[in-house]
Amino acid sequence: MIKAFRTVGRYLMLMKRTLARPERMRMFFRQYIDDMSQLGVDSIGIVLLISFFIGAVITIQIKLNIESPFMPRWTVGYVTREIMLLEFSSSIMCLILAGKVGSNIASELGTMRVTQQIDALEIMGVNSANYLILPKIMAMVTAIPFLVLFSIFAGIIGAYAICWFSGIMTVVDLEYGIQYEFVEWFVWSGVIKSVFFAFIIASVAAFFGYTVEGGSIDVGKASTNSVVSSSVLILFADLILTQLLV
By residue range, what is the domain housing residue 115? Predict the structure, then answer.
């Protein structure tokens, strides 16, 4: 318990240093653009691929498991849409990104720590936490809401594709279900949740990487710990935010 409180305290102190105003805005924006490309743009492919197949699989599963003469045929499209909007494209996709992006951040900062690059920045009088971590947090907070929208779009396309090519149901019925009683707020709630999840992924991964002690083995452990901690915090935040938003 004491170790947990100590870890939380170190995290809050690091965030206090991180969320300060950048000393050189030009360097901050340059690093921000690089992190947007590395952490956000490079993740578009895996987000589209996973979401496409998940949308198709959800459609198949719902069609096979709730097929009933008492159930309207468009229910499949309706349920698929709700799953993609409410949970998968925001929460589950961010859990996947916590593994891909979070481990990347933790490994990068951990390597810089064990090779004393961060110590060199501190000796030069640079706020290393602000210089290294803030651009990553801002890049994630900017990129992940767009990745969520891409995920929703790809999931719906996957549902259309499986209906079109496999013929498990007509595209007309699927389309009617997707459009039935559409609530725009569900899209916005997913985007809002993703902003909080993005901050959790970037800040927690940066904390474990920045504070690593030891050698290359400890960098690997820090990367694993960052993914586990981020996933738990995302699920906890999802519970709270769903109650508040939906």
Answer: 25-245
The distance in angstroms from the start CA to the end CA of the chain is: 33
Q: Is the pLDDT of residue 236 over 90?
A: yes
- Mean pLDDT of all residues in 65-87: 81
- E-strand ranges in the chain read none
Q: How many domains does the chain have?
A: 1
The answer, yes or no, to whether residue 66 has pLDDT greater than 80, is: no
CA distance linking residue 186 with residue 175, whole number of Å: 18
CA 25/CA 28 separation, integer angstroms = 5
CA-CA-CA-CA torsion for 26, 27, 29, 30, nearest 10 degrees?
A: 120
Residue 75 is assigned to a structural domain of this protein: yes
Residue 240 belongs to some domain of the structure: yes
Is 98 domain-assigned? yes
